[in-house]
Amino acid sequence: MIVVFDPADGRIQQTVFDPIPPGLERVLTDNGQNFLFTHQEIGPSIYDDYFVSDGALTRRPDFPIPHAEISLGVGEGIALEGLPQPCRIFVEGAEIVVNDGELTIESDMPAEYEILFDQWPFKPATVKVTINEA
Questions:
Q1: For the whole model, what pTM was predicted?
Q2: 13/6 Cα distance (integer angstroms)
Q3: Which CATH homologous superfamily contains domain 69-132?
């Protein structure tokens, strides 16, 4: 299999499964494409589960988030530390970029929502947050 990828971040752009058409390597090279050969048997999940790092096909790491669910009382808070820097976070569809690796969650009223953490090359992660009345 040939894997065509973006050299800037390792995102897989295209795959060509065996048998490889004759001359394809030359066409890719002439067009300035970055690619590698692999004998790994990977299906369509390659685009979601892998990227290219240091010239090798590599599994995307899980997002470094310690909680899948967070439950707090009104006025309480929690700091999520050790996030990738920068880190794209989506709350109710609104994007927030955290640059210092820490997100503090707190609320002054009961609520329930989901936070999506999405920063390449990590796999996206969702955290359900529930704020209960005190």
A1: 0.82
A2: 7
A3: Cupredoxins -  blue copper proteins (2.60.40.420)
